[in-house]
Write a structure and sequence with these properties.
With 476 residues, the protein is α+β, with helices and mostly antiparallel strands. It has helices at 5-29, 297-305, 323-328, 435-461, 466-475, and strands spanning 43-50, 54-55, 65-71, 76-78, 85-89, 92-93, 104-112, 115-127, 129-135, 146-149, 154-155, 167-174, 188-189, 195-203, 210-215, 226-229, 232-234, 246-253, 265-267, 272-280, 282-286, 293-295, 309-314, 317-321, 336-342, 353-362, 371-376, 385-392, 398-401, 403-406, 410-415, 420-427.
């Protein structure tokens, strides 16, 4: 028999290939085979986590499942494919055909295919999905249905329906148009099934109007009465003319407490009378007399900006600058008012001195206008005395200052410049005769002249005697 060498070689090659294939597959699928990541590096543990939720009735999404294995050398590797693992719910394999048909947290087991003793568990959350629809309930327009996945409570949206004529949106009725538990936009509600939410409407309330009358309260002019004021009213600019020496401060409203400024919004629930409130046309500031340095720069600037007079009070002492004086002050950034009071140990040679008061502005001065100064008194001026004020100039010259007013509480005078002032009590000067006394003296003088003239005529010229005069009176 002749043997074909080519057939023998072909047969040998096929036989060898079949043998090698059997050996390889036999090694791979034999029991207790270990999974190796590199030579001598076996898998010793496995873990898994599921990101997100599963909608009831749907399947497990492999893209949301993260699987990690731990190797003998304690390094970790993430599996990019699930082909090497099995997933179980109890004894049931979770494959691409399995659907989750009940909501809740479900524990699953993941096992390595080549060695199912290497396993771990992980949880998936299965939630319901509902359709939420909106009913205009007599309104118009549409609102699209929403798919609500019940992971968190549902927040009610704004109403996009158009209200019926004469109505306005009142809220939402959940599940039943007769539901009296009306909810509002932004409220949180529980949804546990496909639900219709109904728009609820209410009548637009009739708007009541009121009258508002403005009272000048000492000012002059008029402000128009508001006849149809609504529930909210914005206070307007005051157009009354202020009384002399005063400016508008605020409004006062009959039946309400406090003061109200221009632009304030007030709630109107009845007819109102609004009074203009006036204040002195000046800026008033109080300082402590014990501190000799009085910072008044801000007060001066405020008075200048508002074209107001400026009143400085210091424990009873009052300095009032008129508008002209305030406006004439310059370089007022760092102005200090120096105010010193001496009540004993006087060196000034003025009898009856009670106080020596030094006042000046450090940093500025006033070149126009006047400053009126009020000095408080601790006790009454003696009856036989009168208060006098003197100004001590730099060269020592003493100038008598006219006192505008003196009473039991204070002495008031004014000046065009600051210096050292002396308050003294001095005896009242002798008073001249009154007008009536002068008239009586004139009449008496006339009578004396007449009598003297008659005596010269009767006794001298006529050579008559007293007896002749008596005889004449007896005849009469």
């Amino acid at each position: 028999m002749k043997i074909n060498s080519k057939n023998m070689i072909t047969t040998f090659c096929l036989t060898f290939a079949i043998f090698m294939t059997f050996c390889v597959f036999g090694f791979v699928i034999q029991p207790n085979t270990k999974t190796v990541f590199g030579e001598g590096n076996e898998v010793v543990a496995i873990s898994a986590t599921y990101d997100g939720v599963i909608i009831r009735g749907q399947k497990l999404n492999s893209e949301n499942l993260s699987v990690e294995v731990t190797l003998e050398d304690e390094t970790k590797e993430r599996l990019n494919s699930l082909s090497g693992v099995n997933i179980y719910r109890g004894e049931q394999v979770i494959d691409e055909t399995y659907s989750f048909n009940e909501a809740g947290t479900i524990t699953l087991t993941i096992k390595l295919k080549t060695n199912e003793s290497i396993m771990s568990t992980f949880d998936v959350v299965v939630v319901n999905k509902y359709i939420i629809s909106f009913d205009s309930h007599g309104g118009s327009g549409t609102m699209a249905d929403e798919e609500y996945v019940a992971v968190e409570p549902y927040m009610l949206p704004q109403c996009e329906f158009t209200a019926p004529q004469g109505k306005q949106f009142a809220g939402w009725a959940i599940g039943d148009v007769q539901n009296t538990n009306i909810k509002l936009y932004g409220d949180i509600v529980e949804i546990s099934k496909n639900t219709t939410i109904y728009a609820i409407w209410k009548d637009i309330p009739q708007q009541t109007t009121y009258s508002i009358e403005f009272i000048a309260n000492g000012g002059s002019g008029t402000m128009q009465t508001i006849e149809n004021a609504m529930s909210e009213f914005v206070l307007p600019q005051c157009t009354f003319k202020a009384p002399a020496g005063k400016v508008f401060m605020a409004y006062q409203i009959e039946g309400m407490e406090g003061f109200f400024s221009v632009g304030n919004i007030i709630n109107v629930t009845n007819n109102l009378k609004i009074y203009a409130i006036w204040e002195p046309d000046c800026i008033r500031r109080e300082f402590v007399l014990k501190d000799p340095n009085k910072q008044i720069a801000d007060a001066i600037l405020e008075a200048q900006n508002n074209n107001r007079a400026l009143i400085i009070e210091m424990e009873g002492y009052v300095v009032e600058f008129d508008k002209a004086a305030v406006q004439s002050m310059t370089n007022t950034t760092n102005v200090v008012l120096v105010f010193e009071v001496q009540e004993e140990g006087f060196s000034e040679n003025i009898s009856g001195t009670q106080k020596v008061i030094t006042i000046y502005l450090d940093g500025t001065s006033f070149s126009q206008g006047v400053a009126q100064i009020s000095i408080p008194l601790q006790e009454q001026i003696p009856r036989n005395k009168v208060a006098k004020v003197f100004s001590i100039k730099n060269d020592g010259e003493i100038e008598n200052i006219t006192v505008l007013e003196q009473n039991d509480e204070c002495v008031i005078f004014e000046t065009t410049h600051f210096s050292t002032f002396v308050l003294a009590y001095q005896a009242k000067s002798s008073q001249g005769l009154t007008a009536w006394a002068i008239v009586l003296i004139i009449l008496a003088s006339l009578l004396v002249v007449w009598i003297s003239g008659f005596a010269i005529y009767w006794f001298g010229i006529q050579q008559k005697t007293w007896r002749d005069l008596k005889h004449i009176f007896k005849k009469q």
